Amino acid sequence: MNSMLRKSVLGIAGLAFAGGVFAGPIAHADAAAVTAGKPVAAVQADKPDTSKLIPNGVQGAQSRIDLNGEQTANVKAIIAATKKTGMDERAAVVSIATALQESKLENLGHLGDRNDHDSQGLFQQRPSSGWGTVEQITDPEYSTTAFLKGLKQVDGWKDMPLTAAAQKVQVSAYPDHYAQWEQQAADLVAQHWTS
């Protein structure tokens, strides 16, 4: 009799434990939705929702690089300058993708023979093309603001594929290369926009 009672008590305890484990997170997530018969969406905290940052979806194969402290600081500077101009997260995505393509988010000075003419800074802007002085275009806030000023002048840039919007500002010899950085740029904006 003791063993029968013991099995029953353990069985009930096991069901209570399993019910708490399986029902606990759902009940905790949104008890009202569960009781109303509505589905509850599970969200992974480590995977930010970047769909609004990539309204047209990514185009082509995506590239990704690991960032060092300087590059991360430049991402934050681009985001801060974007906010300061009153532009949104999508503008930051376009800016960061452009800087990833142009300089890998490194604030490049004059590279001698390796320079593309007199291109410098995060966006490889050229003093001879009217982007500003060397000191200005190697300042992340100034260069981002200059890029965004150009982006604002592009009619419908928010509705364009990223690479088309970036190309309208940059006028690159390789206009499709910006597309490969869209996912990483969106991930960086999702990660740092509120930090």
Please characterize this protein's 3D structure:
The protein has helices at residues 2-35, 69-84, 89-103, 134-137, 140-152, 162-170, 182-192. With 195 residues, it is an all-alpha fold. 52% of the residues lie in helices and 0% in strands. It contains seven helices and no strands. The protein is globular and about 40 Å long. It starts with a helix and ends with a helix. The longest helix has 34 residues, at 2-35. It has two domains: 1-42, no CATH class; 69-192. Keywords: Signal. Residues 1-23 form the signal peptide. This is Secreted protein.
Whole-angstrom Rg: 25 Å
Number of domains: 2
- What number is the mean pLDDT? 79
Strand content: under 5%
Assembly status:
single chain
Major sheet summary line = none
Give the termini separation: 63 Å
Share in helix: 40-55%
Any key phrases for this structure?
disordered N terminus, 195 residues, globular, mainly alpha
